[in-house]
Amino acid sequence: MINFEQHEPSVMQTYLETLGFHPEQRNGEAHFYKYLSTEEEYKILTQGVGCRLLPSALLELHGKDSLDFLHRITTNDLKSLPVNQFINTIFTNEKGRILDRVSVLNFGEKQLLIGNTGTQQKLFLWIQRYIIMDDVKVFNANQQYTVFEIFGPQAKSFMTLLCGEQCRELHSNEIRSLTVSEGSFGEDFSFYAIPNACDQKKESFFVIALHPYAVKLVHYALQNKGIFDFGLIGEDAYEIYRIENGIPAEKELNDLYNPHEAKLLDEVSFTKGCYIGQEVIARLATYDKVQKFLCGFLFDNDLSSDKEFILVDDEKNEIGTITSSVFSFSKQKKMGLGYLKKDFILENKILTAIGKNSKEEVSVSVHSLPFKD
Prior knowledge:
Layout: H1 11-18, E1 24-26, E2 29-31, H2 38-47, E3 49-53, E4 57-62, H3 66-73, E5 85-92, E6 98-106, E7 110-115, H4 120-130, E8 137-140, E9 145-151, H5 155-163, H6 165-168, E10 176-180, E11 189-195, E12 204-210, H7 211-223, E13 230-232, H8 235-244, H9 278-286, E14 292-299, E15 309-312, E16 318-328, E17 333-341, E18 350-355, E19 361-367
Parallel strand pairs: 3-13
Antiparallel strand pairs: 1-2, 3-9, 4-7, 4-8, 5-6, 6-7, 9-12, 10-11, 11-12, 14-17, 14-19, 15-16, 15-18, 16-17, 18-19
């Protein structure tokens, strides 16, 4: 059995600690939640270009059957995925519920899977469970690669500054190896860049590098940011960004919900053959049985420390849940993501939310996604 627990600091963590940054332990997980202040990092994200170290599940599949195998156990059509391109797909269980949403990068001789935080061992065991006679081997890729997201309104221009025209010409769904030249006194180094498959409406890139090159890239970027408002982004500032932009994460993408409810049908093929959960997902579409959908919520002057809430109607019947919430600097209000029964999804409809821990009642209004000024 592969052990996914991190006992030693990663090369990147060690480097960041030399800069004076340290991971913080919260709810049993250690991440870089903050580098500067949340307000400063949020400003970088909304006006400049940020670099976020992804605390993601990273698996690597080898074997001549691996792409066909992924095609057979996930929702999207991967069979004809070209080499050096990527696609989003969803692992679902027998009930059609979400195990994880992943980006699959096809390198030909191998496939790299980028999943959500904390799902690595679950995905590994799920994949192993269905390998029978297939030529497929699965590995922990976190031991080899570091994954970043480069995003913000200056992201594409900044990547062009680092890598030249080779980045400007990067096409949608393409994986490209880019090279940075450190000049006369340094060695060139390479990494993979792809447009962020989960955030194609924004200027955003995934960057995947071998651990030593990842350190070189961050160091080079910090030393050569020029006129750009570039900085490292922690999980606290990112959480505000993702909720404002309606980007679901592990709290919204789990086995309580299905792809219909999460509004991820672009990542579901209804024309390919069977996959795990296919019958349930197809039946929900055919008979219009989907009862709730992902949507946004704005709080009315809520001071509660709760992050999650139960939504109730006038008779106190449960009608939904708020899965994630933050204070938005742009709205100057608390906002959240969650699921609500479709009969109650009306823009600006006022609902009652009850804190899962405090049991305090607060008023929220329904909001379409993404949130806009």
